[in-house]
Amino acid sequence: MKNLVLVGCLMLLLGCSKTSETKDTPTTQTETPGTPTDTVTEEPEEEPVTEEETEEEEPISFADFEANITAFMATYDVPGLQVAITMDEQLVYVKSFGLADIENQILVADNSLFRVASISKPITFISMLKLSEEDQVSLGAKVFGESALLGTEYGTLPYSQGVLVISVNDLIEHRSGWTNDPYDIMFDDPSLSYQELFSEMIDNRRIDETPNYYYLNFGYAVLGRVIEKVSNVSYEAYVQENILKPMGITEMKIGGNTLAERLENEVVYYPSTEGAFSPYDMNVTRMDAHGGWIASATDLARFMVHIDRRPNVPDILPTNRLNRPYFNFFNWVHTGSLPGTSSIMSRHNDTFNYTGL
Asked: pTM value?
């Protein structure tokens, strides 16, 4: 169900494009308890497409757009949905649809907060780039081992050579050598600590010493701990103060795990089908740096215009720092999925961004 939501949202929102040709570089991430995460092939950076290479289309009708969304929600039994669109770095459209809480008949509002799942990763990536820009950490620095960023506090010595050579950049680019075999450890027993999860990976999980790209939630969980070690504050506090606050974002938080821990303005999550995995049987707080943030579509749009390399709104980092394959030219998409929630964030056609939750 969650994958249908992602595909449907993407198709609807791509319909807003004002160009007839695109060079999509999809990077679809799916987080499913107990199963390997989809691997995604990185694409090389594309040069920006000039105005002469695009062809104008007729502007779309927002009435038709909204009718398509409500029809989509009815077809796939989606309780609530939220969309924000920017053009030339200005917010031009925000709309909320459906219910945030079915039992109490509470509508989704424009300030409602949703779990954004893997869209947490670009937030963590920008945080690492910020620390690097301020010379607090090198992206080439080793993560585990004597004199490394996290030292030897996790797992049992001696570490394998594969573990010793992992760098910050390897984790950013999903090239650590670890995989989800036999399962994604970030969905393990919710009571396990980072110490226990990290030690299990270091001690007992095979690591490829000549790694290829493999999309890995665990790698970004490690980056969260690197941010804490370097900054001497919690991951959440560092991101809120140094990344989100300068962007004018004040409501984004790391989410709780249970219905009782639901934060103010946060929607309620529902299983996709009767008997499906419960959205409240996970340790979402432990997923912080790879999947733990809650946000509104508007705040994700604010985040986008501060990293999009466009001139109207000052970016949080110099353009050369943002010229990475992770933030591709022309079209750039990141999605997220957890039981009960789906998200999408796209920099589209250089001038057009959209987010959907």
From this structure: 0.85
In a domain, 332, yes or no: yes
Inside any domain, residue 143: no
Give me the helices (H) in the chain, please. Answer: 2-14, 62-76, 120-133, 161-164, 168-172, 194-204, 217-231, 235-239, 288-291, 297-305, 319-322
Collapsed DSSP state (helix, strand, coil) of residue 11 = helix
Backbone phi and psi for residue 24, each to the nearest 5 degrees, phi listed first: -65, 140
Print the domain residue range for 344: 2-128+233-356
Q: d(Cα 162, Cα 211) in Å, to the nearest integer?
A: 9
First-to-final CA distance of the chain: 14
For 84-108, what is each residue's pLDDT tens digit?
Answer: 999 999 999 999 999 999 999 999 9
Q: Give CA 266 to chain center in angstroms.
A: 18
Most distant pair of Cα atoms in the chain: their distance? 63
Is 140 inside any structural domain?
A: no
DSSP for 308-319, please give it: S--SSS--SS-H
Q: Which two tokens stand for residue 205?
A: 């999980």
- Measuring CA to CA, how many Å separate 31 from each of 142, 221, 310, 350? 27, 14, 31, 28
